[in-house]
Write a structure and sequence with these properties.
With 677 residues, the protein is mainly alpha-helical. It is elongated, with a radius of gyration of 47 Å. Among the domains are: 107 residues, Alpha Horseshoe (Serine Threonine Protein Phosphatase 5, Tetratricopeptide repeat), CATH 1.25.40.10; 56 residues, no CATH class; 85 residues, Serine Threonine Protein Phosphatase 5, Tetratricopeptide repeat (Alpha Horseshoe); 106 residues, Serine Threonine Protein Phosphatase 5, Tetratricopeptide repeat. The chain is built from 33 helices and no strands. This is Signal recognition particle subunit SRP72. One of its GO terms (molecular function) is ribosome binding. Keywords: Coiled coil, Cytoplasm, Endoplasmic reticulum, Repeat, Ribonucleoprotein, Signal recognition particle, TPR repeat. Its main location: cytoplasm.
């Protein structure tokens, strides 16, 4: 296309020579100037127009190149310029237009097939893309075979990651770090995280070896190339709950400031998921990286959707209710059948204490999308439980037909009904689940009773026995014994139940119990006695003497006599002196108690003003001693005595035992009180 064509003059010939020389040297900017001069001479020259488009593409001016093609549609027909047009549309992220251009081309050249594979990958049509690359590898033999194999492995990795398709073994030799990286991505999609980490470590090693051979490549360049590998390593760590290691590696990548906006957006999103409702300020900074220009063209639809979900959740955590509603509503418009948008809206309503409105929103979604009703109803039941409406929650759970018979659902319903003391409803749940399994077994030929079915019958029987429904439990136990006549435990339960309802039947059934001689327990007595639990029990019970052991073995009916311990005597005990008969009484209640003696200084401190006579001075006066009360009152008591008069009026006189009683009450009150300021 860059070859010079025969011109209509010497000037045109010289210009074509200049275009040819610049094209071979890669100087497309200078070549473009010469092409424009040629077009001034002949504006509809097809070769010149083609050369101009190529020069613009090589200089990265895709929009201008596409404008030239669309302006000269009569001259530049689709069979001449199909590849250049499709490539410009591809680079301008007009992927659907590029696909139409390729499909409308009259001849599918190798270049168009290569571009077709890239377009299909961007459109996430992985099955068609895989077929296109297989055809290319099969029918091409040139120096680009390694790149095609890399693209093929990328398609397989995308299928495994986004469509959960089991990847097939392509038989590719993983000699490059790109192939190793794609293989690791496929393993992550399968959940084989440890194997994926080993592949990534191998990819890192190959990358370092490959880039270190080039003397112009610096260590910073190598780290920048390794950023995407390290990002995938951090993602595996995050999946393995090694969040601290993952967070450290994510932040190291961000510090490198890689030019790949898609990589930065994914890392920022993953950090936000680690932060959750904590470290919100950091999450608000990281979310800006997800809004960078061109991110939407670098990531898959599921990646972009996950980022938008996390933006809505972050808005909820930061109490931006309006922003949360706006984002979740937009997501619901884009994906009406998706659960997360409506769940986020319901969560936001719950944060605003609008539980009834949240339940109504979920109910509307369940009615509109029956396929997703189960998960929505589980959420509704959780909200009802949070509100304390356990019975309503049970009604919602029982309306999920596809989960009614599941052991987990049965267990949850029985527990909830038991909490509400609704035993009849709990038994009904058991009955319905057992009937479902019976119908299922009837539809299956040559299949014995399933373990789940028998387990439900046993649980139902145990539940009925626990709540006194002996007759109902007997029918379940008989069914179990019928299925397994050698089940000793079931037979013992059946005999126990019959003993309370029909003792004669219990006696008949007891004949089926195996004798003790036929039962081999295979118990290691020594090991049992030396176990931790047995040692602990022995220590608690105390060691037995040899005589006591003989008594226990030979005379189990003889009661062991307890030895009475001698009482301890006080240290100053004198057998010649008669003990005080009032020694059992508290000191304050004894006849000879005269109260505590208080120091003079202690009584005088802080009483009265300077120069005045205090109440304490009357106690020191011998002339007043006869009329003073027998004991001095405690501070704060009502037994205060006037210092101005020795005469006690008749109405205020108290019995002889009154002061001692008063002190006893005060002492009890003081003992019962708790300290504190």
């Amino acid at each position: 296309k860059m070859a010079a064509a025969a011109g209509c003059g010497v000037a045109a010939t010289a210009l074509w020579s200049e275009v040819n020389r610049c094209g071979q040297n890669g100087d497309f900017a200078r070549a473009l100037k010469s092409v424009n001069k040629i077009l001034q001479i002949s504006k509809d020259d097809v070769t010149a127009l083609q050369c101009k488009v190529v020069c613009l593409i090589q200089n990265g001016n895709f929009k201008e190149a596409l404008g030239v093609i669309n302006t000269h549609t009569k001259v530049l027909t689709s069979d001449i310029i199909a590849f250049e047009k499709a490539y410009c549309e591809y680079r301008l992220n007009r992927i659907e237009n590029a696909l139409k251009t390729i499909q409308s081309a009259s001849q599918q050249t190798d270049k168009l097939k290569e571009l077709y594979g890239q377009v299909l990958y961007r459109l996430e049509r992985y099955d068609d893309c895989l077929a296109a690359y297989r055809d290319l590898i099969r029918n091409s033999q040139d120096e680009y075979e390694e790149e095609r194999k890399t693209n093929l492995s990328a398609v397989v990795a995308a299928q495994s990651t986004w469509e959960k398709v089991m990847p097939e073994d392509l038989g590719l030799r993983e000699a490059t770090y790109e192939l190793c990286y794609n293989s690791a991505c496929a393993l992550i999609g399968q959940g084989k995280l440890n194997e994926a980490m080993k592949k990534l470590q191998k990819a890192e090693e190959l990358c370092r070896q490959s880039l270190s051979e080039d003397s112009d490549v610096t260590e910073e360049d190598i780290e920048a190339e390794l950023a995407i590998i390290h990002g995938q390593m951090a993602y595996i760590m995050q999946l393995q709950d090694r969040t601290e290691d993952a967070l450290q590696l994510y932040n190291q990548i961000i510090k490198l400031k890689p030019t790949d906006v898609g990589l930065l957006a994914v890392i920022a999103n993953n950090i936000i998921t680690i932060n959750k409702d904590q470290n919100v300020f950091d999450s608000k900074k990281k979310v800006k990286l997800t809004n960078a220009e061109g991110v939407e063209h670098k990531l898959s639809k599921k990646q972009l959707q996950a980022i938008e979900f996390n933006k809505a959740l972050l808005a909820m955590y930061t109490n931006q209710a309006d922003q949360c509603r706006k984002l979740s509503a937009g997501l619901q418009t884009q994906s009406p059948e998706h659960l997360l948008p409506v769940l986020i809206q319901a969560a936001q309503l719950c944060r605003e204490k609008q539980h009834a409105k949240a339940v109504g929103l979920l109910q509307d979604f369940a009615d509109q999308h029956p396929a997703n009703a189960a998960e929505i109803k589980l959420t509704m039941a959780q909200l009802k439980i949070a509100q304390g409406s356990v019975t309503k929650a049970c009604m919602i759970l029982r309306s999920i037909e596809e989960l009614q018979h599941k052991p987990g659902m049965v267990s949850a319903l029985v527990t909830m009904y038991s909490h509400e003391e609704d035993i009849d409803s709990a038994i009904e749940v058991f009955t319905q689940a057992i009937q479902w399994y019976q119908q299922f077994q009837a539809s299956q030929t040559r299949n014995p009773k399933s373990p789940v079915h028998l387990s439900l019958i046993r649980e139902a029987a145990n539940f009925k026995l626990k709540h006194g429904r002996k007759k109902e439990a007997i029918s379940d136990l008989e069914e179990l014994w019928k299925q397994n006549p050698r089940g000793v435990h079931t037979l013992a339960q059946l005999i126990s139940a019959y003993s309370l309802v029909d003792p004669e039947k219990a006696k008949v059934l007891s004949k089926h119990l195996p004798s003790s001689d036929t039962m081999s327990l295979k118990v290691d007595v020594d090991a049992l006695e030396n176990s931790h639990g047995a040692t602990y029990v022995r220590k608690k019970a105390g060691k037995l003497t040899g005589d006591n052991q003989q008594k226990e073995q030979g005379q189990g009916d003889v009661k062991k006599k307890k030895k009475k311990k001698k009482g301890k005597l006080p240290k100053n005990y004198d057998p010649k002196v008669t003990p005080d008969p009032e020694r059992w009484l508290p000191m304050r209640e004894r006849s000879y108690y005269r109260g505590r003696k208080k120091g003079k200084k202690k009584d005088q401190v802080g009483k009265g003003t300077q120069g005045s006579t205090t109440a304490g001075s009357s106690e020191l006066d011998a002339s007043r001693t006869a009329s003073s009360p027998p004991t001095s009152p405690r501070p704060g008591s009502a037994a205060a005595v006037s210092a101005t008069s020795n005469v006690i009026p008749p109405r205020h006189q108290k019995p002889a035992g009154a002061p001692a009683t008063k002190k006893k009450q005060q002492q009890k009150k003081k003992k019962g009180a708790k300290g504190g300021w």
